[in-house]
What we know:
It holds the Pfam family HTH_67. By secondary structure, the chain is an all-alpha fold. The protein has helices at about 10-25, 30-35, 45-50, 60-65, 70-80, 90-105, 110, 115-130, 135-145, 150-175, 180-190, 195-205, 210-220, 230-250, 250-275. The chain has one domain. Helix 8 (about 115-130) runs parallel beside helix 10.
Amino acid sequence: MTTxxxxxxxxxxxHNVVNPLHSAHYFSPDLARxxxxxxxxxxxxxxxxxxxxxxxxxxxxxxxxxxxxxxHELVARHLPALWxxxxxEQVLAARLRAVDATLRRLLGAEAVASAAMAEAASLALRAxxxxxxxxxPLYAAHADLPVPGEPHLAFxxxxxxxxxxxxxxxxxxxxxxELDPVEALLSHTATGKGMTPAWVLRTRGWNSAEWxxxxxxxxxxxxxxxxxxLTAEGVLLRRGIEAETDRLDRGPYEHLGAAGVERLTExxxxxxxxxxxxGAFPEGMFGR
Length: 288
């Protein structure tokens, strides 16, 4: 373990360029094709299948708790029924095939086989050595899965662990801030850095009435203005949530050290830019 502590927010900056290289597969036609071949074809079912599969064949309650911002009724529409269509082992194998196809399509064969990819995988895996499982169910479940052999898949696997490690911590912070799932989503979209309200409503299962009611609750707390903008107090709350998440997620980046974090950020940025240019995410997904 290195003793050089990364600068403030260096871990968050690293996460912000590594995480999209994990999450792009959720929006990939390669994933939809792989899951459809198993009989999992309902809109949204693929996401629940691949992200929850590390838990084993769990029901809706476990996923609602661990994913936090999805309406329980939406989750229950798919789970546990989909495990009668495809086994956990089939889903995990299909996910890895989809990730392989997605990264090759977005980055190209040369980047996938490059020395830079092998270095990024090594650094990201080293960072995961600083992760801890206690109180982090999604991280811990994925950490029990084997590390893939090919460097681009190993990099994606490490990115998955880093994403879920931070995400589990983030949910603890949201609970401490007393933001329920819809309030958390709405206040995040109000920062302009999250998904659009239309995308949230389409994918998370909430309706317009529930969204509007959450807005009223946030206004009652002085966090949201009349036009849906964050108040000064709301801005401070959201900044504090991210700062506390940084604190709870500092382990992997302190373990990697300042130079390693800087290098992983550089390498991941080099992969992310062409992936975004190749259409890794749907148009209109982010913004206010």
